[in-house]
Structure formats: structure tokens, C-alpha cells
Amino acid sequence: MTTPLYTPLADAAAALRNDGYALLQAEDVATLARVPLAALNALVPSWDTLALDNYLKDGGRYRRRRHSCFVQEGAHLTQTAHRAHWQPLEYNALHGGMNRLFEPVLPATVTQAAWTALITSIGQVCSTARGNAEPWYVEAHQFRIDTTDGIGRPTPEGAHRDGVDFVAVLLVARDGIKGGETRVFEADGPNGKRFTMTAPWTLLLLDDATVIHESTPIQPLGAHGHRDTLVLTWRAGAFQGDGTSQ
Asked: What is the pTM assigned to this prediction?
């Protein structure tokens, strides 16, 4: 298991701009959001409510999720009407090109102050790195990858970009698993990093134009295990699929 090399909080925007990614430890994520870790941990039980992802083309039963969309302007976050998730095939050759309508994030989750604080604070780092591209069109995905099938695939599409401006991957929990190594590569170069996020609320923030990323499969250490993440994306201009022939 490769140990992560964390980015100092004060350097997060510069690292995102210059290196294409920043990796923050949990305590710095809480500091960034201006909430205690206990407030972030209060979000965790909602991962036990996720619904089965019925769109997996490999026929797997290893992914559960919820998905909701928001518009961010500064520290203000507004939830949109529930909408499908859509990606073009050029970014997701496995599951792109189709509307995937998932169950929404629960109101009891969205209304917690830590939810808004977390999303908007990370979005403001993106704004600093980009030089103010707000409003941001934000998609939030709660994921649970489990070992129901013996193996779970966090990124069944392989190393990829998401077709947005910025991507955040927050580890929420690792329970009884091995694997799940994170890999970040230059989109147009030979360099890459690999590490395993183990501490809850570790944050990987990515410039989607300059890097590609993936997580390796997980396997159970015993009878069963799972890996929970919160994946957030920020896109300027519109949500993916708006104004696109679908």
C-alpha cells in the first residue's frame, strides 16, 4: 500500500493549477470547510441508504449510489430539479451516451450544514485555481463499491477524464477490503502518481483537463467489505448534456 504525499492546505490551489491535482488530509479538509470532522462524520450514515446502480454494463451488482445536482455561486449552493447524469462516449466509453437517472441524495443529507460547506469550500479552491469561473454546475455522487460479486470496481471504465473542469474524490470509508489504489496520470505526458487513500475525508482534487485518473478494484479481506466515496464535479457554463443531442 503506497502512502500518499499530502499537499499543504495553503498550496492547494497552486498545486491544482500547476500539477493538475492536490491531495489534502482529512484535518485540512475540515479546516477548509470550516466545520469539525464530527460534522463531516455526521454525513456518513447516509451511505448505508444508497440504491443499487442498475446501469452497469458488465452486469455487476457491486455499485450503489445516489446523485444530485447543484449550482454554486461563491458560498451559496442551490439544488436543481432532479436530473439524469449524462456523459459523452469520448469521456466514458463504457457508460457514456445514455441518460442514467439515479436516486437523489436524501434531503436529510443535503440540508446538513457540512454538506454545503464542504462542496462550496472545495469549489472556491477551484475558482482560485481557475481565476473565477463561477457559477459552477456541480454534480454530487455518493458511491459504495462492495464485494458482493467477489470483486468491486470503483472505475469500471478504466483510467478516464470526466468531461468537467474539476473533480473531487473524497474517501468516506474503507471497511474490510484490500486494493482501491488511486492512480493519477498526466493526460499528455508520461508522469503519474499512485497511492492509497485510507483516512476518511481524505480529498483528491483534480484538474480534469490535465490529468486522467482511476482506482483499482477492491477485494474483501474477510467475508465482505466496501469502499465509500463522495465524488463531486464542477463544470463552467452548463451541466453535461445541456444543449447536447442525447
From this structure: 0.92
Residue 242 inside a domain? The answer is no
Q: How many domains does the chain have?
A: 1
- Cell 489534502 maps to which residue? 24
| Count of Cβ atoms closer than 10 Å to residue 45 Cβ | 10
231 within a domain of the structure (yes/no): yes
Cell numbers that stand for 80 in this block: 436543481
What are 105-140's pLDDT values in tens digits?
999 999 999 999 999 999 999 999 999 878 999 999
- Give the ranges where 105-235 is alpha helix by DSSP (H): 107-110, 113-130
CA–CA dist 62, 50 (Å, integer): 12
Judge whether 16 lies within some domain: yes
**What CATH number has the domain bearing residue 221?**
2.60.120.620
How are strands ordered across the β-sheet holding 211-215?
192-195, 182-186, 211-215
* CB 88, CB 162: distance < 8 Å: no
Q: Indicate the Cα dihedral angle 84, 89, 95, 97, nearest 10°.
A: 40
- Count H helices, E strands: the chain? 5, 13
Give the integer Cα–Cα distance in Å for 96 and 131.
30
Q: Which residues span the domain enclosing 136?
A: 9-236
